[in-house]
């Protein structure tokens, strides 16, 4: 990667996203989503956790075989059988990657009951093993944001020395905050020998609703890979949402001069496909891809948008591949919006006719949450026959 401001997008919808309780996807759905991610320009697709099940192994292998542009990555714990199984699945890809991890915080070190030195030795052995199989190895200290800084520097240095090319810093429980996220990456880049030879990555969870802000702050701190999922799918409150970080970098390029390789016009189709496959409905007011993200109902907003769309829209619906109308007709809508909407439906009304239809429209909107195109046509026809 030559451009120092290019940020790699690592999508983990099919691994961390699918880990969300109830979000299990079928084999065909996974292949379909992987193909869409590849076409969208995602740099790395984490396709699954090959040792977790036969189904995961088959899906990762098949995605690896079909991959065209994206690197295909599989997850493996810091154990030789996990790493071997992962390699067996990803090796078919044009650009295979092994991602191996271990929990490094005091709470996580207690689980396998390893002391600091024993864990350091395990990291050295497993990263070396992965690197003997695959050129592209990513290593993660799970719960990095709650790991002692001195120890984090020590183990990151070991992983780099053993050949990891990407060092991913997970905020596993969504605990960090933007200032801290930036500082942590900056600290690692400054203190760890060899840090300038690898790419630092950020992997945030959204438990406090800060995943997007934390990921962008990490980029400010020097990270050049963001791990994320479509619709922010993921365990508990989810992961960083791909559509949010990518659109934030696009819309606020003036203050965050970083680029990605994502074709943003494919965002909406992927959001819908992932929602359908996972069964996770996207909340209507979800940033970027929610049903209401580009809809205006209040009279003042509708009037503004009709005169100059930039008054209330910071990005174009077409930027994410959405070609639908952005005006929702409801009780807060004004006369200008009604006139524009009727014009769109093929009705050009005189002032008196519009006044009449507007009164009927307001009465209906008081009874109904949303007034649809068919309702408006009925109102116009009714007004024509009953005046
Ligand atoms: O959240 C996390 O720590 C993870 C790791 C496996 C990278 O998903
Ligand atoms: Zn995670």
From TrEMBL:
Pathway: Amino-acid biosynthesis; L-leucine biosynthesis; L-leucine from 3-methyl-2-oxobutanoate: step 1/4. Its cofactor is Mn(2+). It catalyses: 3-methyl-2-oxobutanoate + acetyl-CoA + H2O = (2S)-2-isopropylmalate + CoA + H(+). GO terms for cellular component: cytosol. GO terms for biological process: L-leucine biosynthetic process. The keyword Metal-binding applies. Its EC number is 2.3.3.13. GO terms for molecular function: 2-isopropylmalate synthase activity; acetyl-CoA C-acetyltransferase activity; manganese ion binding. Residues 7-268 form the Pyruvate carboxyltransferase domain. Keywords: Amino-acid biosynthesis, Branched-chain amino acid biosynthesis, Cytoplasm, Leucine biosynthesis, Manganese, Metal-binding, Transferase. Mn(2+) binds at residues 16, 203, 205, 239. It is an enzyme of class 2 (transferase). It comes from the Bacteria. Belongs to the alpha-IPM synthase/homocitrate synthase family. LeuA type 1 subfamily. Homodimer. Catalyzes the condensation of the acetyl group of acetyl-CoA with 3-methyl-2-oxobutanoate (2-ketoisovalerate) to form 3-carboxy-3-hydroxy-4-methylpentanoate (2-isopropylmalate). This is 2-isopropylmalate synthase. It comes from Paracoccus kondratievae. The gene is leuA.
């Amino acid at each position: 990667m030559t451009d120092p401001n290019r940020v790699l997008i690592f999508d983990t919808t099919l691994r961390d996203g699918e880990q969300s309780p109830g979000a299990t996807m079928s084999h065909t759905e996974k292949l379909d989503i992987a193909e869409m991610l590849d076409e969208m320009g995602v740099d790395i697709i984490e396709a699954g956790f090959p040792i977790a099940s036969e189904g995961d192994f088959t899906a990762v292998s098949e995605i690896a075989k079909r991959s065209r542009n994206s690197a295909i990555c599989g997850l493996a714990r810091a154990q030789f059988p996990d790493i071997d199984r992962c390699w067996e699945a990803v090796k078919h890809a044009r650009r295979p990657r092994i991602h191996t991890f271990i929990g490094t915080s005091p709470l996580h070190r207690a689980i396998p009951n390893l002391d600091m030195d024993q864990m350091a030795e395990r990291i050295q052995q497993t990263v070396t093993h992965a690197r003997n199989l695959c050129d592209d190895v990513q290593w993660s200290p799970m719960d990095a944001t709650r790991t002692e800084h001195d120890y984090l520097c020590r183990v990151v240095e070991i992983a780099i020395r053993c050949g990891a090319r990407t060092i991913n810093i997970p905020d596993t429980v969504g605990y960090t905050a933007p200032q801290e996220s930036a500082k942590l990456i900056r600290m690692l880049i400054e203190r760890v020998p060899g840090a300038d030879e690898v790419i630092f990555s950020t992997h945030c969870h959204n438990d406090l609703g800060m995943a997007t802000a934390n990921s962008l702050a990490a980029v400010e701190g020097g990270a050049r890979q963001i791990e994320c999922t479509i619709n922010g799918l993921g365990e508990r409150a989810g992961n960083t949402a791909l559509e949010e970080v990518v659109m934030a970098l696009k819309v606020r390029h003036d203050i965050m001069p970083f680029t990605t390789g994502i074709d943003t016009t494919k965002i909406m189709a992927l959001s819908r496909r992932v929602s359908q496959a996972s069964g996770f409905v996207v909340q209507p007011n979800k940033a970027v891809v929610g049903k209401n993200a580009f809809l205006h109902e209040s009279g003042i907003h509708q009037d503004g948008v009709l005169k100059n769309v930039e008054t209330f829209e910071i990005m174009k619906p077409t930027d994410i591949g959405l070609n639908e109308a952005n005006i929702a007709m409801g009780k807060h809508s004004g006369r200008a919006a009604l006139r524009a909407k009727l014009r769109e439906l093929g009705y050009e009304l005189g002032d008196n006719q519009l006044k009449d239809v507007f009164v009927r429209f307001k009465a209906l909107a008081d009874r109904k949450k949303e007034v649809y195109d068919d309702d408006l046509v009925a109102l116009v026809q009714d007004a024509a026959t009953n005046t």
